[in-house]
Amino acid sequence: MTVPTRHRVGDTRSPKQDRSRATRLRLLESTIDALATEGWAATTVAVVAERAGVSRGATQHHFPTREDLITAALEYMFDTRMGEARAESSALPQGAGRTEAVVTRLVDYYTSPIFRAALQVWTAAAADPDMRARVLPLEEKFGRVAHRTAVDHLGADDSDPRTHRLVQATLDLARGLGLADVLSDDSRRRAEIVKVWASVLDASLALDTTSTSTSTPASTSELS
């Protein structure tokens, strides 16, 4: 007889824990949706609870304050997006076109509802010292993971300072294009910029590779 998944040996989760996990997930996703569509001021505990179909009391059981709820949603949003980005690596083309595909994926993130939700939090945190103290560590963590993911997707040598700066410039460009898209559809100009920057990045990364390979024999001969 097949044992139901919830009661397999070694699975310590109870139906109550599963329901609690599902409730928490609905609250986090509803918070992100509310931030992206309604903005910071409108994303209250009551609004999120109603969107998630959860009582206010149950919401505050999981997240005692609005700040707790929004901070948790931001962390969930970052972790989910970075997990998706890592999983997408197998779908990226090999050879010609890969760099443009990587840059396009980065820009797509910064023009997504997830970025719009994060932007609402960043803007509020700029005027709220307590919220800023909560958000800054998450932003730093996201920046490090985003940089590492971009390096992996590009197949770049991040130990080279110039390459490191080029990857960071790519992330900064993507963020800027995301900001430009907030008030109006900037997709046509954005696509042209992505194409141009990808070609610049391709040439620069190739130059770095050539410089590294040609400098190695010289340093070896100097040692001998």
Instruction: Please outline the major beta sheet.
Output: none
Instruction: Tell me what the CATH architecture of the domain at 67-209 is.
Output: Orthogonal Bundle
Which quaternary structure do these chains form?
Answer: single chain
Q: So how many helices?
A: 9
Overall pLDDT metric: 84
Q: What is the strand content?
A: under 5%
In whole angstroms, how far apart are the ends? Answer: 72 Å
Overall geometry: elongated
Uncertain runs with pLDDT below 50, 5 residues or more? 1-9, 212-224
Helix content: over 70%
User: Topology as H/E string?
Assistant: HHHHHHHHH
Radius of gyration (CA) equals: 22 Å
Tell me, what is the CATH class of the domain at 67-209? Mainly Alpha
Write the CATH fold name of the domain at 67-209: Tetracycline Repressor, domain 2
Q: Total strand count, please?
A: 0
